[in-house]
Amino acid sequence: MAVYPIVETFYSIQGEGLYAGAGAYFVRLFGCPVKCPWCDTKNSWTGKPNLSLSSDEIANEASLSSCDFAVITGGEPTIHPLQELIDAFHERGIKVHIETSGYMPKNIEADWITLSPKLHSHTHESYLEAADELKFIVSSEDEISLYLEKFGGYLRGKKAVFITPEFSKSRDAELLNSICETVKLYGSPLRAGWQLHKCFGAI
Ligand code: SF4
């Protein structure tokens, strides 16, 4: 049975994407080779994991909550063999959402995939095609254009594509206005994104 390096597990609300506001059981796995300079979870790839848990231990703990779905995040969760963990959740009737940057080729079957590709890192085509929703984290107006240039060919058929301000820029009126204007210009599936859990002070 696989054992996973864990930063934290917790039951909270999903703060981003189309499931924002719903209760979700989070599993934050340790390790990320992508190393974004603005990463707000650097504890997921610096230092070491806080504990190791098997797929059954993780899924058993989640089943004590009233969650409908678990979110496996990181770090970059797909550097780990995730299918066993996904299956353990499914055996307990819990759906699984994956949050990934698309760093690895897709080799899992999950119920929902949120892909947050990065401008400075390679994104595997298999995730660009399979993702249900995309999330572009932007620090400047230029980055909005760069994301659309690099990934614009993959927007068709997505349930939503969020343009979200990097959190330290979430009060930057110019950037917020640029996001709004971009959404108004191009329409669906673009949406202005936000990190709801941070407004609620939820972890
Ligand atoms: S991919 Fe995610 S976890 Fe990894 S450094 Fe970037 S923001 Fe942080």
From TrEMBL:
Q: In which pathway does this enzyme or protein participate?
A: Purine metabolism; 7-cyano-7-deazaguanine biosynthesis
Q: Where does S-adenosyl-L-methionine bind?
A: 38-40, 75, 116-118
Which keywords appear in this protein's UniProt record, sorted alphabetically? 4Fe-4S, Iron, Iron-sulfur, Lyase, Magnesium, Metal-binding, Queuosine biosynthesis, S-adenosyl-L-methionine
- Residues in domain Radical SAM core? 19-203
Q: EC number(s) on record?
A: 4.3.99.3
InterPro entries in the cross-refs: 7-CO-7-deazaguanine_synth-like (IPR024924), Aldolase_TIM (IPR013785), rSAM (IPR007197), rSAM_sf (IPR058240)
At which positions is [4Fe-4S] cluster bound?
32, 36, 39
SUPFAM superfamilies to which the protein is assigned, alphabetical? Radical SAM enzymes
Q: What cofactor is this protein dependent on?
A: Mg(2+); S-adenosyl-L-methionine; [4Fe-4S] cluster
Q: Which Pfam families match?
A: Radical_SAM
Binding, substrate? 13-15, 28, 73
Q: Which reaction does it catalyse?
A: 6-carboxy-5,6,7,8-tetrahydropterin + H(+) = 7-carboxy-7-carbaguanine + NH4(+)
Entry binding sites for Mg(2+): 41
Q: How is the cofactor bound?
A: Binds 1 S-adenosyl-L-methionine per subunit. Binds 1 [4Fe-4S] cluster. The cluster is coordinated with 3 cysteines and an exchangeable S-adenosyl-L-methionine.
The entry's family comment says: Belongs to the radical SAM superfamily. 7-carboxy-7-deazaguanine synthase family.
Q: What does this protein do?
A: Catalyzes the complex heterocyclic radical-mediated conversion of 6-carboxy-5,6,7,8-tetrahydropterin (CPH4) to 7-carboxy-7-deazaguanine (CDG), a step common to the biosynthetic pathways of all 7-deazapurine-containing compounds.
What binding partners and quaternary form does the record give?
Answer: Homodimer.
Mind telling me what this protein is named?
Answer: 7-carboxy-7-deazaguanine synthase
Organism in which the protein naturally occurs: Intestinicryptomonas porci
